[in-house]
Amino acid sequence: MKIEIKKLNKVYPGGYKALDGIDLTINEGIFGLLGPNGAGKSTLMRILVTLMQPTSGEVLIDGRDISKHRRKVREMVGYLPQDFRFFAKLRSWEFLDYAARLAGMNSKKDRRERIDEMLTSVGLYEFRNRMANKLSGGMKRRLGIAQALIAYPSIIIVDEPTTGLDPEERIRFRNLMSDLSRTETIIILSTHIVGDISSTCNQMALLNEGALIYHGTPDLLVEKAKGYVWRAEVSQEEYEHLKEDYPIISTIPSGTGWEIQFVGEKPSSMKAHRVEPNLEHAYVHYMDNNLNHWNL
Ligand SMILES: Nc1ncnc2c1ncn2[C@@H]1O[C@H](COP(=O)(O)OP(=O)(O)O)[C@@H](O)[C@H]1O
Ligand SMILES: [Mg+2]
Predict the structure, then answer these.
(1) Whose alpha carbon is nearest atom 18 of ligand 1?
(2) Ligand 1 centroid vs 43 CA: distance in angstroms?
(3) Percentage of the chain with pLDDT > 90?
(4) Ranges of each domain in the chain
(5) Ligand number with the minimum distance to the CA of 11
(6) Could you give the CA distance from residue 259 to residue 135 in angstroms, rounded to a whole number?
(7) What is the mean pLDDT of the chain?
């Protein structure tokens, strides 16, 4: 299975261009959509789940235009919106039952089994009788994840799924996605947190101001930041200077000055040591350059 996004544009009423000519192919596996707030991640996801129409361009799933197969798309897709909320007064399991029925699971017995399975997967089984709106923030998010997965979707689209999750819940979520990625599933997750794009994502894209500025593996993105990350000992004065021109990644007091790490072309006069880049460095490097279509 594959999703092809072609020349996708979205201009909101009022004229704001939220997506600017996105071309992207997404294959099976975990796809991480990374970008700062306002980059257009939610806009793209809402288009993918057919809740919103693009201004121009198209999205194909296995060659079929989603705008012509909306019902079919909605059957295939499990979606967690960024602003996921509960409206009805339901117990956690009842909420999942409702979601399962909406998704077309007609057998009560199948639903029961699946609900228990999902509640266990997201660690909410012991809270199954608690009212959904009385769950903690992290638990609500987990119930949101469960409702997205309940009807065995072949495409999973989760918008900022880790918001409000504590570190343990994040790990559980990551493992859950890894397990799912062993099946023939496309998982697309958006995040503004670099740490969420872990080794579990085999593909990723970087979105900035509606434009796709990178598409590839996380490793390759890191690779591209090689030679652009530096560590140096600087005085207070040098630090003040450097700060104006370079993204500073870390600052540790050292003697009367600072030991800093920064990203960019090293000033030739400066004594600095190369640092092995990580994904965070690479992200800063890319965003700082804002190089359009640098993906080779
Ligand atoms: N319904 C809307 N009407 C007008 N502008 C919108 C609307 N929704 C989002 N935007 C704008 O589009 C841009 C992208 O938003 P969004 O897709 O939510 O980004 P992200 O999910 O990456 O934070 C933002 O500048 C946002 O303010
Ligand atoms: Mg968003």
Answers:
(1) 42
(2) 6
(3) 82
(4) 2-216, 224-288
(5) 1
(6) 44
(7) 93
